[in-house]
Design goal:
The longest helix has about 45 residues. It is globular, with a radius of gyration of 24 Å. The protein contains twelve helices and no strands. Helix 1 crosses helix 12, helix 3 packs parallel to helix 6 and helix 3 packs antiparallel against helix 9. The protein has one domain: MetI-like fold.
């Protein structure tokens, strides 16, 4: 009996030690992140004003702005989301609900999992060879958006499949028992019930894409650009224009990289301000995705 009590006491001490170590590690991460964000706010917040957001880059730090960079970032993310989200969700649904379980499917699954961990520079080299030189899309917004779409596509596929796996098998069986086709089961049951996990994966994927620099530099994104792409809205029919897809571009991470590489300390302050804008843009996109997820899940009838 005494040995049993000693074992219990030993396990309790181990649990206490593990909890203390876990709390310390969490605090270290939170404090470090907080210190970095605080330093970024202290340096960049005084630089944020309307002129900084509406001015083009300049060789004079006081006159330099991020207009072309944040517009390019938003346009790149539009192309990325419009490409990666439908393809990723469709591929995840097919692999999980339609594809037969054989050696070919297993091979595809292994490759998708491996692609999710490939360094981003590899996607940049692939896009440079395939999109820029082979398909002759040029160093355009379309090329940049497709490059980042390739980068996050495996993440969206994996997130979609994991979300579908969390749905009880009984829901599928009940729908089939009532005469539903496979597509009806997917459309009316599986996709609505898995929207939470799928949107979480999409948010994580887009958050990664918005901060990527290496693949965009590889395909030839500009570090200095003093003009905006053509407007997607026209005053004459058909009122929509896709000329902006072929326009050169720059993004906020590249603009920040350009500024921090200069010896003038004023440009480092500009980079800190651009970093704050990048964080705000990322949080705004995530907020939109969260609102969409909430509204869709609210309409679901369990």
């Amino acid at each position: 009996m005494s040995d049993f009590k000693r074992i219990i006491a030993k396990r309790k001490r181990q649990d206490i030690i593990f909890n203390i170590v876990g709390i310390l590690c969490t605090l270290i991460g939170i404090v470090t992140l907080g210190a970095l964000l605080l330093d970024l706010f202290v340096d960049g917040l005084p630089r944020l004003n309307l002129g900084f957001l509406t001015s083009f880059p300049s060789r004079f730090a006081e006159q330099a702005g991020i207009l072309s960079s944040w517009v390019g970032t938003l346009l790149i993310m539009v192309v990325t989301a419009a490409t990666a989200v439908p393809l990723g969700v469709a591929a995840g649904v097919y692999l999980e609900e339609y594809a037969r379980k054989n050696w070919l499917t297993n091979l595809i699954e292994i490759n998708i999992a491996n692609l999710a961990g490939v360094p981003s520079i590899v996607y940049g080299l692939m896009a440079l060879s395939l999109l820029v030189y082979q398909f002759r899309l040029g160093q355009s917004i379309l090329t940049g958006g497709l490059t980042l779409a390739f980068l996050i596509l495996p993440i969206v596929i994996v997130a979609t499949r994991e979300a579908l796996r969390t749905i009880p098998q009984g829901i599928r069986e009940a729908a089939y028992a009532l005469g539903s086709t496979r597509w009806q089961v997917v459309r009316h049951h599986l996709l609505p019930y898995s929207i939470g996990g799928t949107m979480t994966g999409i948010i994580i994927a887009l958050s990664r894409a918005i901060g990527e620099t290496a693949p965009l530099i590889t395909i030839g994104a500009l570090t200095f650009i003093a003009f905006l792409p053509p407007s997607p809205i026209k005053s004459q029919p058909p009122f929509l224009s896709f000329e902006w897809l072929w326009s050169p571009f720059s993004v906020l991470p590249i603009q920040m990289f350009n500024w921090v590489s200069r010896p003038d300390q004023a440009f480092v302050v500009n980079a800190a301000g651009a970093g704050l804008v990048l964080i705000l843009v990322t949080l705004s996109l995530n907020a939109v995705a969260i609102v969409i997820r909430y509204r869709v899940r609210k309409r679901i009838k369990w």
